[in-house]
Fold:
Amino acid sequence: MSVLSAAALLSGAASCLLGALGLLRFPDLPTRLQAATKPQTLGLLLILLGTALRLEPAGAASLALVALFQVITAPVISQLLGRAAYRSGALRRDVLVTDDLADRLSNGTQ
Amino acid sequence: MTVVFTITLVLLCTAGVLTFARVLLGPSTLDRIAAVDVFVILIVAATAVYVAVYRDRSNIALLAAVALLGFVGSAAAARLVERRERHR
Structure:
């Protein structure tokens, strides 16, 4: 149990660090959002798992509530930021491979 | 186990420094909002490690509260920035 908990804590912290590194190094907002999802879901969930393994079941249940809430809200934030980034032009066209939204917007359907 | 907690907290602190560098560098407000959102999550993760160290259940409510506050703040800021850009 203790080994599992230690492994979950360490890998969670490592993925948080990798996500932060990507947040600093990636070129524009959509790619940074992709890096930001790593600490937001995987990193936090692993750390919560490692913590839950060290607590009694009642504590683990309330940690599961935090995890559930995080899994629900992280995509909402990413979607809001991505949408605002597209509309304000905060993305680099030269690193974009495909843009499916441009056709829809030019049709006037938005 | 103490070594594991120390390494975990060092990794989280390094991640916090890198994230805060993105907050300072920007360049756009949306980049800063994304970075602040990640920073709040790192605070939640570090508090979870504290709960694991002391096996102290009283701080779990704090985890939920900070995560909720981070979500509401980031969502409101993102909406505000989008509205401002559209009216420009």
The CA atoms of residues 12 and 46 of chain A lie 5 Å apart. Chain A has one domain: 2-106.
